[in-house]
Amino acid sequence: MANNLFSQSIGIREKNEKDDSDDKPDFKEAYNDAQALDPALNRRIMYRFDRHIIPWLFGIWLLAFIDRSNIGNARIDGLATDLKLDGNKFNIALTIFYIPYILIDVPSNWVLKYFGAGYYLPGLLIGWGIVGLCTGFVKNYTGLLVCRFFLGLCEGGLLSGIILYLSMFYRRRELLFRIGMFYCAAPLSGAFGGLLATGLARINHGGYDRWPWIFIVEGIITIAYGLVTICFLPATPSKAKFLSVVEREAAVHRMGLDAHGASQASKVESEKFSWHWVGILN
After folding, report:
1. Terminal Cα distance for the chain, rounded
2. Distance between CA 126 and CA 244 in Å, rounded?
3. Which residues touch 184 (CB under 8 Å, ≥6 apart)?
4. What's the rounded Cα separation, in Å, for the pair 63 and 77?
5. In DSSP terms, which residues pair with 205 in a beta bridge?
6. Which residues, 6 or more positions from 13, have their beta carbon under 8 angstroms from its beta carbon?
7. 3-state secondary structure of 26
8. For residue 204, which phi and psi values (nearest 5 degrees)?
9. Which sign, positive or negative, has the C-alpha torsion 112, 187, 193, 150?
């Protein structure tokens, strides 16, 4: 009798374990599903993303570094003399840029998720373009500090915002190369910014001589680029107009496979922020 009871308990336990295993996700099957994604379709989607997204981000990052560093070129062309800046005042004007630049980083990403990166990133671009334009009309040290503060406020969430934006379109193993592609604009900005500032500093018109035109013209270029970017930069893969219906569905599906169950949302725009994950990461 004891043997019969033991056999029955073993049978019940094996049945329960089998039922539990049916409820668990089959990671091998999920892996096979990921591999089953049509390679030709996957390459075509990545090619279209590289063609329609990376060039715009490259331009945004290039203009960000040009507008951030043009104060050094303006100093050479008379900014310090006209505004009566000594070494300490100029250094304070440089430093005040980084205060909002650091503080706005995380809150900026929350706003990005709410408004959509396709509108928010160009909006930042237009914002600091307006600030740069206003810097050309500054007449005193206080005005320069205010402009530098708002410039940092507009540019603060840019880098993390671009990386978050790219993570909506590319899988993790594809991100590094794309981040490197747009980041190449940073060293190029030193060459283009200096040449551009040298030419603009020769303008003498309307009572604004030399350095103001560096900020005015570069600010106008930045605003114009931001307005154009809004029309072409997609917010999410499901809203990419340059993809066909089949390609959009595949683009959304491939990002779901890459998440490996980390998110229950079917689309990027449906994902919600949770402090739970912040606590785990900390």
Report:
1. 56
2. 30
3. 58
4. 20
5. 208
6. none
7. coil
8. -130, 100
9. positive
Number of Cβ atoms within 10 Å of the Cβ of 195: 11
Q: Tell me how far apart the alpha carbons of residues 146 and 131 are, in angstroms, rounded to a whole number.
A: 9
Show the beta-strand stretches assigned E in 9-134: none
Calpha distance 165→139 (Å, rounded): 38
Token readout for 80 is 């310090």
Q: How far is CA 165 from CA 133, 169, 191, in A?
A: 27, 7, 27
193, β-bridge pairs: none
At 168, which helix (H) or strand (E)?
none
User: pTM of the full predicted structure?
Assistant: 0.77
At CB < 8 A and 24+ separation, what contacts does 203-211 make?
208/136, 208/137, 209/78, 210/77, 210/78, 211/73, 211/74, 211/75, 211/77, 211/78, 211/79, 211/82
* Separation CA 233–CA 60 (nearest Å): 11
Q: Classify 204 as helix, strand or coil.
A: strand
List, in order, residues 6 or more apart from 250 with CB less than 8 Å away: 37, 38, 41, 42, 45
Per residue of the chain (282 residues), give pLDDT as tens: 444 443 444 454 444 444 444 444 443 444 344 446 788 998 999 999 999 999 999 999 999 999 888 898 899 888 888 898 887 999 999 999 999 999 998 889 888 888 888 899 999 999 999 999 999 999 999 999 999 999 999 999 999 999 999 999 999 889 999 999 988 888 888 778 888 888 888 888 777 778 999 999 999 999 999 999 999 999 889 889 999 999 999 998 888 887 654 445 545 555 554 544 434 333
Q: Is the dihedral of CA 183, 186, 189, 191 positive or negative?
A: negative
Helix/strand/coil for 154: helix
Distance of alpha carbon 116 from alpha carbon 225, whole angstroms: 18
User: CA 76, CA 78: separation in Å to the nearest integer?
Assistant: 6
